[in-house]
Amino acid sequence: MKTMSHGAKQELPELLELPEGCKATIISFTSPQDACRLSSVSRNFKSAAESDTVWGKFLPPETYTILSQSSAPELAARSKKEIYFTLCDNPVLIHQGRMSFSLDKRNGKKCFMISARNLWIIWGETPQYWVWISHRESRFDEVAELLNVCWLHIGGKIDTRLLSPSTLYKAYLVFRFTAEAHGFAHLTVEVTVGLVGTEATRKTVFLHSQELMDGDQYPKQRSDRWWEIELGEVFCEEGEDRELEMTFLASEGTQWKRGLIVQGIEIRP
Question: From the record, what ranges are coiled-coil (predicted)?
Fold first, then answer.
């Protein structure tokens, strides 16, 4: 016990003397980053900071239901901290392998990628324009490779009930080019993101440029060696029950295009 300063006689229990369950409850109201810091700098807090009480609070409520229907149901048997960081670094497949689920490492918000097979791709089932191939660096069994089109149109939807509530989400087309890619230099693409039944936000982006440039209208390389271009953003309200729709359209000009490989569209905070 320690007497308060400024002459006060009221006494407070030392934080370090609190039962481990109390420490864990307190830490669970912080953040994943705070819990990791406490675990690394204080032996007195390490056990509490790594407990299921803490990390269960950071996991989305639907985590175990999603895992039970995923490509890795065995993950549910691990500690909650292990589940958290595994899902941050290693997305699992859901919806018959046509969507992936992961967590944002900063805050535990849900992230999803819709595979190319679950997108609509104009002429995507016409072999002279698109082919479906396997790619060793894709999380999905198939990706879509563009052989030759003039008009490029890709889109997808996701149920907002899958997303974390009260969260600002951004959508990204995840892609790469083959060595024979052609027709994308200086190509302008109109992209939209919005809830079905509302007016979508629109902007123009570029898939390729001779020099890497900053700004969300230009592509950026990801840690998994794919590239991504931001399509737009939307705030997912608490209790939202609609579909989020994303589109990607390059229809101006007569330039034929080839060599684009589409892995999917990722939605993340």
Answer: none
How many whole angstroms from its chain centre is CA 250?
25
The span from the CA of 174 to the CA of 102, in Å, is 15
Nearest Cα neighbor of 180 from 155, 202, 148 is: 148
- What are the pLDDT digits (tens) for 12-42? 456 667 778 898 898 899 999 999 998 888 7
The per-residue pLDDT for range 41-78, each reduced to its tens digit, is 877 788 899 999 999 999 999 999 999 999 999 999 99
Cα separations in angstroms, 168 against 88, 141, 199, 217:
18, 29, 17, 19
pTM across the whole model: 0.90
Q: Are 12 and 1 in contact (CB under 8 A)?
A: yes
Residue 177 CA to residue 196 CA, distance in Å, equals 31
- What is the rounded distance in angstroms from the CA atom of residue 236 to the CA atom of residue 165? 6
CA–CA gap between residue 216 and residue 246 (Å, rounded)? 16
